[in-house]
Design goal:
The structure holds 3 protein chains of 3 kinds. By secondary structure, chain A is an alpha+beta fold. Chain B has a single domain, classed as STAS domain (Transcription Regulator spoIIAA). Classes of the chains: A alpha+beta, B alpha/beta, C alpha/beta. Chains in contact: A-B, A-C, B-C. The structure holds adenosine-5'-diphosphate and magnesium ion (MG). The site of adenosine-5'-diphosphate has 23 residues of chain A, from helix 2 and helix 4. The site of magnesium ion has 5 residues of chain A, from helix 2.
């Protein structure tokens, strides 16, 4: 655990390599959301968004890691989830974010839906090098 | 794992299944198999899926639920999704997943009271 | 880190490690003499000892001097904890920062510091005092935000109108935050009361924009997912026109022009429930 980024503290890291890891990741996010004092609806939204991202990481990205961070002021307090893989990346991020777009059997609501469920959403992807999605929910 | 984690109870023509807190992939798949077998065996007209305890439904779980409903319809049974928590409902609505074609009820009791036809 | 800086750091660490008790009691005495917040000596001792331990840990990390207080999370939390507790007891931000600053003489008093070492202690404690100040500001901000949310909740009551029928009469301009809160409290009320129908009355709403219309649509979707029905009432011709111009399709939604009509419809739906099969919309 490093504290190189002064604006956030890493709380927990969960490797994503098996289906069980998806559950572990969800539990970890739920516990962190609870500990940060998020209400039931906010918790559910954050856990669901994280669930979409780790499933993408597992299914499309060939596995990776989920990291839970606490964002500290300035400017605001929040909970941040980073999901990263070194898979094939996303060719067309705008298309991938559109509802109903899927290159697999999925519903294609994962990425776009996750973006709507959180306060901040950042997608970084380079074809051939992997994908990182960072979502933030402000807690105050 | 031979015995399913999701118990299926038969009440006359109705099958009621209580889904657990966590819908993990394997459990849901096993459940879908078991349910289709039971619908075939019992010729049930209605399947009530009790999701009162389910705390998270992501797009994967939503897809499984829709597939289970479609499968049941093919076997001649209607599916009622009962007891969705308000936090889950808000989240699904925001995900843009309205679960079209899936019937819903406030609780298992409401689902059982609301029988087909006037 | 240059050699003399490293040496200064080690010297300060040794001094603190070897004099924990003395530093703590000096600090506690200073606070008791000032008698700022009503905290007993024992509690003060615990607070300062936590900070000293974390400070030592933080000094052992590879962090620049002025970043130990912010970058070493346990230290930052310990300082923030103290600040929050004192703030709750009514201490001013200056009083809290002064208390943190007084760690400086407490530490320096138990060593014969070289210039470099004195500077180091200064940088460390200054940064810690800043943390305490920021915490104070944030906790004030939190209180203000909480009060805002409570106000919002009060201004959007959910009314139990009839057996298994709920209504939210919306009055005034709806923004996204308020629409969100209305949606959540209505859906929670549906669950708590096992209501069959929810009426959203927008008679008192002067304008509707895309974001609010989307919230309304989502509320309708969520209501149906829960197994209840939603009726939208009080849509004036002007609002209807606005909604149409936004390109939003309300045709799937049950609408009534007045709250009374909506209630009649709701009672019909409640009666119907339990007798007929309801095919879902959408
Ligand atoms: N981590 C990832 N690595 C590679 N491609 C991804 C990743 N996440 C999403 N994608 C691409 O974006 C598309 C849309 O993702 P999503 O909205 O979650 O839909 P779904 O997962 O149902 O296909 C996916 O079909 C996939 O092509
Ligand atoms: Mg997906």
């Amino acid at each position: 655990m490093t504290h190189s980024d002064l604006s956030s503290t890493s709380l927990q890291t969960v490797p994503i390599h098996t289906e069980e890891d998806l559950l572990t990741a969800r539990h970890a996010v739920r516990a962190a959301a609870l500990a940060e004092g998020l209400g039931l609806v906010a918790q559910t939204k954050l856990v669901t968004a994280a669930s979409e991202l780790v499933r993408n990481c597992y299914v499309h990205g060939g596995g990776g890691v989920l990291r839970i961070e606490r964002v500290l002021p300035p400017p605001r307090r929040g909970l941040r989830i980073v999901v990263a893989d070194q898979g094939p990346g996303i060719e067309d991020p705008d298309a991938a974010l559109a509802d109903g777009y899927s290159t697999g059997p999925g519903l294609g609501h994962g990425l776009g839906g996750a973006r709507r469920l959180v306060d901040e959403f950042e997608l970084r992807s380079e074809p051939g090098r992997g994908t990182t999605v960072v979502i933030t929910r402000w807690t105050a | 794992m031979t015995s399913p984690d999701i118990p299926i109870i038969r009440l006359g023509e109705v099958l009621v299944a209580g889904l657990s807190r966590e819908l993990d992939d394997k459990t849901v798949m096993l459940f879908a198999d078991e349910l289709s077998r039971r619908i075939g065996d019992t010729r049930a007209s209605t399947v009530v899926l009790d999701i009162t305890k389910v705390e998270v439904i992501d797009s994967f779980a939503a897809r499984m639920l829709m597939e289970i409903a479609a499968m049941a319809r093919l076997l001649g049974a209607r599916v009622v999704l009962a007891g969705m928590r308000y936090s889950v409902a808000i989240t699904l609505a925001e995900l843009g997943l309205a679960l079209p074609g899936v019937e819903t009820a406030l609780s298992v009791e409401h689902a059982l009271n609301r029988r087909a036809g006037p | 880190m240059p050699g003399d800086r490293q040496a200064a750091r080690e010297a300060v660490m040794r001094a603190i490690a070897g004099n924990r008790g003395r530093i703590a009691s000096t600090w506690v005495d200073t606070q008791l003499a000032r008698a700022t917040p009503a905290i007993g000596g024992e509690e003060l001792g615990e607070e300062v000892q936590a900070i000293i331990s974390c400070l030592l840990e933080g000094l052992g990390r590879d962090l620049p001097d002025d970043r130990v207080a912010t970058g070493h999370a346990p230290l930052r939390e310990a300082v923030a904890d103290l600040s929050r507790r004192w703030a709750r007891l009514g201490a001013s931000p200056t009083a809290i920062a002064t208390a943190v600053f007084s760690l400086k003489p407490a530490i320096l008093g138990c060593m014969a510091p070289q210039a470099e070492e004195a500077l180091l202690v200064g940088r460390l404690i200054d940064a810690a005092a800043l943390v305490s100040f920021q915490t104070y500001v944030d906790s004030r901000e939190e209180i203000i935000q909480r009060q805002n949310r409570q106000l919002l909740e009060i201004s959007t009551p959910v009314v139990h109108l009839w057996h298994r029928v709920l209504a939210v009469p919306l009055i005034g301009t709806l923004d996204s935050a308020r629409a969100q809160i209305v949606m959540e409290s209505l859906l929670q009320a549906i669950q708590d009361h096992q209501a069959a129908v929810a009426i959203i009355d927008i008679t008192g709403v002067p304008t509707v924009d895309t974001v609010v219309a989307q919230h309304l649509m989502q509320t309708v979707t969520a209501t149906r997912l829960m197994g209840a029905d939603c009726v939208l009432s009080g849509i004036s011709p002007r609002i209807a026109q606005m909604v149409a111009q936004l390109g939003i399709d309300l045709s799937e939604i049950t609408t009534r022009s007045s709250l009374a009509d909506a209630l009649t419809e709701a009672m019909r739906l409640v009666q119907e429930e339990g007798r007929t099969e309801r095919t879902p919309a959408g």
